[in-house]
Write a structure and sequence with these properties.
single chain, 2 helices, six-stranded antiparallel β-barrel, Thrombin, subunit H, 195 residues, mainly beta
Length: 195
């Protein structure tokens, strides 16, 4: 086989971006289709961008739906795939303008003090108390004082790890800002589960 210098070299296939891992959940709700039909669904797994559901009807890829779980209002989503009674949904993007408006002005939801797992870079994870939460951050009590600007990893039960930055320190109480704000749907589910 000879190489022809006039033929372009084969290009490697572009990698498809992978979605972040989803954590199993078990919640009941419904999906509202564009034609107004309501479909009872079960939420099977969840990450910060979307979810997997069990559905008794065939949904169409690309179909817009409004998802409601535990009476938390309607969440705009789009069907990515549907097969064998299951479907994958991606939550509608939060617009940049909405993020700016929410930033630093969102009221933090007060929680009964409870534990979450955190990890400082290069160290082991440990449990800390969380006192309040917003889509952009949280207030926690730590065992070892970090530095302002330090990166920490926060792990909520049944969700992937969130990267956060230490914004302020008052004794052993620390304010964290998430690198990527929680989607409002995920935030509502967390509050319902933790509150």
């Amino acid at each position: 086989m000879t190489n022809n210098p006039n033929e372009p070299a084969p290009q490697p296939a572009l990698a498809t971006p992978r979605r972040s891992a989803r954590r199993p959940v078990s919640l009941e709700g419904y999906a509202l289709r564009a034609d107004g039909a309501s479909v009872d669904i079960s939420l099977l797994d969840l990450n910060y961008d979307g979810c997997g559901i069990a559905t008794p009807v065939e949904l169409e890829p690309g179909e817009p739906v409004k998802l409601s779980v535990i009476g938390r209002g309607l969440i705009d989503a789009e069907v990515r795939w549907c097969k064998d009674g299951k479907a994958g949904l991606v939550f509608a993007s939060v617009k940049e303008a909405d993020q700016e408006k929410i930033s630093r002005q969102t009221e933090r939801a007060k929680l009964k003090p409870m534990d979450v797992r955190v990890r400082r870079v290069g160290q082991n994870a440990y449990s800390v108390r969380i006192f309040d939460l917003s889509p952009e951050g949280a207030r926690i009590e730590v065992v070892e004082r970090p530095r302002v600007g330090e990166q920490m990893m926060v792990k909520f039960d049944r969700l992937e790890v969130l990267q956060a930055e230490v914004c302020w320190i008052d004794g052993f109480i620390v304010g964290l800002r998430f690198e990527r704000p929680l989607h409002p749907a995920v935030f509502d589910l967390l509050i319902a589960r933790m509150g």
